[in-house]
Amino acid sequence: MLDKNIIKKQYDFYKDYLLNGIMSFWEERTWDKECGGYFTCFDRRGTLTDANKYIWFQGRQLWMFSALYSQFHESKWFELASHGRKFLIEKAYAGNGRWNYQLDQKGNAITGTISIFTDLFVLSGLAEYALASNSDQDIELISEAYKAIEKSVYDPNYKDIYHNIWSPKYKHHGLYMITMIVAPIVGKVLGDDKTRPLIDHCLENILYSFAKDDHEALFEAIGKNGEYMDDDEGHIVYPGHTFESSWACIQEGRRRNDQSIIDRAIQIFEWIYKRGIDNEYGGIYSYLDVTSGKPKQFDWNKETNMSWDDKNFWVNAEAIAVTSMAAVEKQNEEYFNRFIDISEWCYKNFYDNEYGEWYAELYRDGSIKLSDKGTKWKAAYHVPRGIMIAMQEFKNYTEK
């Protein structure tokens, strides 16, 4: 059993950390009051570095502000959410359930419908906003966007999967992982009967196709028929993606009261935590090769020149989320100690005591590699979401 007094102190600390350490960085400067939507790219001090609108982050931040309003009922979060929703609907929608990837500050399209991940993040934002606002004003748009995504996820030849590169050889875990996170949110709006088949499809793929018992790993790329691919791309594991899938599956197991889903998800988390933890310097590695060789860079790791042993913000934020959830679910002291270890390491190394928020990237030893707080790959999403998940887990546990 976990000590409820200790857990309550953790909740109180992380509530303050979320609102005053992380979100205070964003709540004023993210508004684009001239053109609408959100600014998301800032240097360490909070100076704007890029005014373009990256739509998957417009959608992610819409989700974040809507979720914050539902959690804390402060009008400022609803105002921020409404501001982002308006811009997305008026400027970013490309029709037929699809969303443009990148706009300029004023809302003119720079890059069109290249990424189903953009579509998924906007859909999650619109669905969360519908829940927060208790409104069905976007119900038709949510339904149209969900139908487009559902069709695409089932299609093995669907090619708009940037930042992944489509190949006739592989299918990619990220598509199923993000759908596994988004579809249950949509289910609260459209009805679980609409989303249950797609969630079942994602669960089966994540828990039993991408996750391979003989390797004790969840792979980022497997063959189109679910087979292990013994090549450079087929060897890659992303701890951050595994942690996201694990907590999303735990949540779904709870909704269904299905312990087998929960136990399988925790087993997969356990595999990758043991592979991913850096026992010498602390923190979680960015990506790994299960053959123990030096992994090659693929996808966004290649684009950002992220080395496998660098410490990336989102990977470690997802470790905070999943360790807190596993600790509460199993009432397990070892998992709780893992949560304490990773969260304290992140606070010491990622958190900027002077200007707030987390740095984007660290070298293996915890020294700063990229001090920016917002980039085309980072905004107000993974870090506050990871902290908020931990808070909710601890709150629920103390109220049992």
Summarize this structure briefly.
The chain has 400 residues and is mainly alpha-helical. α2 packs parallel to α4 and α4 packs antiparallel against α5.
Instruction: Give the overall shape.
Output: globular
> How do the helices and strands follow one another from N- to C-terminus?
HEEEHHEEEEHHEHHEEEEHHEHEHHEEH
- Bin the helical content: 55-70%
Poorly predicted runs: none
Q: How is the main sheet built?
A: 3 strands, antiparallel
Structural class: mainly alpha
Average pLDDT for all residues: 97
> Which percent band covers the strand fraction?
5-15%
From the N-terminal CA to the C-terminal CA, the straight-line distance is 13 Å
| E-strand count | 16
Strand order, sheet with most strands: 3-6-7
Gyration radius, rounded: 20 Å
- Discrete helix count: 13
Explain what you see.
By secondary structure, the protein is mainly alpha-helical. It has helices at residues 4-26, 55-72, 75-92, 116-133, 139-154, 173-190, 192-210, 239-256, 259-276, 299-303, 313-330, 333-349, 382-398; strands at residues 41-42, 48-50, 53-54, 93-95, 98-99, 102-103, 109-111, 170-172, 211-212, 217-218, 221-223, 236-237, 288-289, 311-312, 361-362, 368-370. The protein has a domain at 42-162. It contains 13 helices and 16 strands. Strand 9 (211-212) and strand 10 (217-218) form a beta hairpin. Helix 2 (55-72) runs parallel beside helix 4 (116-133), helix 8 (239-256) packs antiparallel against helix 9 (259-276) and helix 11 runs antiparallel to helix 12 (333-349). It starts with a helix and ends with a helix. The model has no long low-confidence stretch (mean pLDDT 97).
